[in-house]
Amino acid sequence: MITVTDATFADAVLACDVPVALDFWAQWCPPCHAIGRTLAELEPEFAGRLVFAKINSDENPMATRTYRVMSLPTLIVFSRGNVIVAQVGSRPKSHLRDMFEAALDKAGVGAAVSQRPQR
User: What DSSP element (H or E) covers 88?
Assistant: First the structure.
């Protein structure tokens, strides 16, 4: 998972050739830590198709304001500089997996069947 700042946001997220799942979080937010662990578990399943990134909302107010993040955690999936999907609050791993797959479908990124676990 990469760490993004206001200074690196444009290059790391908007200009990325691969869709980016950006986790807006804060140190004081317990659900943010829980979703962070879940994202770390999901990251290998989406290798090569989705970049996982995080941005500390308290330390990076520009991106937080620009994307109107009002509650934490907030996940936003970007593709080619556009918001594909946004999710506020912590969700189970299965929900996040489905959300990422749907976002990748919308972005036109094919499935990596061999990496997907059976449900």
Answer: strand 82-88
